[in-house]
Amino acid sequence: MEIWLNCINLVPKHFSENIDKILSKKEIDAPIEEIIIKDDFKLEQNGKQIGKIVNISNKKEQEDALSLIGSVSWILIKCDDWKMIPCENLIAAAESSGTKLAAIVENKLEIPAIAFALEIGVDALVVTEELLDAAIITKLQRLEIKEEDFVTKGDFPTINQESGKIIGVESQGVGDRVCIDTISFLEKGEGMLCGSFAKSLALVHAETLESEFVPTRPFRVNAGGIHSYIMMGDLSTCYLSELKSGDEVLIVNTKGNSRVATIGRIKLEKRPLIKIKWVTNEGFEGDIILQQAETVRLIRKNSQPISVTKIDNDLEIIIHNSIQSRHIGAPIRAFSQEY
User: Which residues contact 257 (CB under 8 A, 6 or more apart)?
Assistant: First the structure.
């Protein structure tokens, strides 16, 4: 994605090296390529016509812009009111056409929205000098995502999994519990690693399973009491009480494959809670305190979800153990004991 500096009304004294082109109505003495808007709204570069600027304020003007796709190198979009929908419509139509899209951006909030519209974005952002820093940051984000397109699931860490045998289930009365709503769909077999002790976390299943009593919430994990730890996207741990919108949590499936999801919302409510305690073959103990509800599920050793209301002693669930202690969420070698 390119950054064009909008010099139609104001020409700066100095030009940032991060600018790819200058947009103006007349030639400017600058060491950067210029695109000139002519009186007939055509775009010229080095004396050659490369496209057209189109003002879009109604359906007819959008149709005029769409009719240019495939016949010009660039379409410069200027929207008076509706911006996102016309941009998305043109991005979709221009895909693989050979025509590139530039958009005049007028405020900071529009920059990431238009740069990532339809997950594709425009080919150039046209910004004033005041918006240049925000555009540069967004361009770097676009480059990062482009690099991530080549990353396969196998490049995310595989999380070591063990089985823990249930050795106790008991009521904990009413307490504060946290539901984590992500901005991604979760699938059957996926969940988050949570627990009372950082060294032993259970895989808590997402609310993806159908029920005749309540609708699914395929973006949600009912993660437990506010004291609990959760594995974050960077493999650190965090208390559920500390989570907020925008944080990244680790999503893990029954095979140990992982990915990262961003939190969109946290729901903190008082609910009846139960403690579920387990032990590994090596004698390693852990527990988790969860809401006592049929929709809250752990995952059995055979990879099948099971409601916490049906869990009993000797049943085996999927857990993740770590030999490292934690300090402010980060793994350390120092001694630490939780009980």
Answer: 153, 156, 158, 159
Going 79 to 141 to 144 to 14, the CA torsion angle's sign is: positive
**Domain 160-329 grouped into CATH 2.40.50:** no
The residue ranges of every structural domain in the chain are: 2-148, 160-329
Among the listed residues 61, 69, 74, 126, the one whose alpha carbon sits nearest the alpha carbon of residue 92 = 69
Which amino acid does the sequence have at 237? T
What residue type is assigned to position 326 of the chain?
Answer: R
Separation between Cα atoms, residue 166 and residue 260, nearest integer Å: 28
The encoded tokens of residue 336 equal: 């630490």
Contact 185, 218 (CB under 8 A): yes
Per-residue model confidence as pLDDT tens digits over 286-325: 999 999 999 999 999 999 999 999 999 999 999 998 755 4
Single pTM value for the model: 0.65
Tokens of 19: 């600018």
CA separation for the pair 256, 246 (Å, rounded): 24
63-84 pLDDT tens trace? 999 999 999 999 999 988 788 8
